[in-house]
Queue: 2 jobs
Job 1
Amino acid sequence: MQTKSLSLEHLIRPSAISGEKVPALIMFHGYGSNEKDLFSFAPELPEELCVISVRAPHVLPPYGYAWYAIHFDAEDGKWSDDEQARASRDKMAAFIDEAVTAYQLDEKNITLLGFSQGTILSYALALSYPEKVKNIIALSGYINESILKEGYEEKNHSHLDFYCSHGTADQVIPIAWARKAPEFLEKLHINYMFEEFPVGHGVAPQNFHSLHQWLSKHLEKQR
């Protein structure tokens, strides 16, 4: 199902619950992928959730999309377009507001699930606009401090809960980058769970099982 009135293309699995505000999980895919990728998780997620998978705004031919450009031929290695990243961060934030209204979502029970570049943006969104989300599932990504909104440190992040995971053999995003997240989150007094798995740049079955348990537990807390 797609709704053209919203600012970003997306797929949606409506919750089985109707007639009241429902909790939602919003997915942000990785670089070069699309909204169909993470949406394959939807049938396995808690039935009470309205699941929305969003397509990034920048086209990568032939079939992919990105939240921001990565210039692999930069002299100092990979170089991210932080200006595009900040613009996508704000588009994501606006999308959440639009989806809450369009689908009668519970604005106090919004979960983000990101992978790779989608995780980098999920971190940026949650830390910059903590009032818009509750739970964040950060898979195979890291915190890019340069795309956080100015003054984010002054906001209240204490209600946030993060599930962070990374592969020890990740060949795309070094695990050393991901391992910086716990200390960063602790400084902001944010609750988190950080796990490592003996895999590359992907989500192993045991990783999905663990995040599913974490998510179910945190949804129960909010009932």
Note: The mean pLDDT is 93.
Job 2
Amino acid sequence: MEVRIVACGIFQLELEQVLEEIRTEWTSDAVFKVIYTAPALHVDYEKLKAGITDALNDNSTEEKTVLFFGSMCHPEMSEFTEKYHVISLQPRNCIELILGKERQEKLEKSVKIFYLTQGWLENWRKIFIQAQGWDEIDARQNFGFYDKILLLDTGVSEFNDEAILDFFEYTQVPIEIESVDLSVFKKNVVETLEKALDKATSTYTNKVK
């Protein structure tokens, strides 16, 4: 049985690792077909909407499509995806998806934090320089709001020290590395996939009848 997925490319490495683990753990014959959108689309709501709808159109099916984006990545997400009958994630954004709401709130209890993941670190120039148009002065004005930048190490790949240094020089905000396992992320993925599989099984059963 095929599960169709449209996902943000910002956490492609994490999702690919978790999907591989799920494939080996489940006895189901489910096949995951994933379309990733460009990681920097979220800075422009129109581009994000177009990217998601294009992917959903390419992935058109009578059955449910899983949409792996934060529920708050676009203010009109539920409205423009309604006709595609998607199954969506509940966490608000990719950071809450990885950390969980409680851990994120605990980390932010006394400091203002900007989060990075491997995907953000690899794509920060596309996001902030190309898409946002921020030069170093703009970056320091905008990032000056934060006490620190927290780079979440999910273990999916090695960090590039030069990339970390480049981002620090761009923002002038201290960068700390926090090790995070993928248990929360995987839990969110599994719960969402199970909903899709239940629906797909129900649809298939009804067709047979």
Note: The longest strand covers residues 2-8.
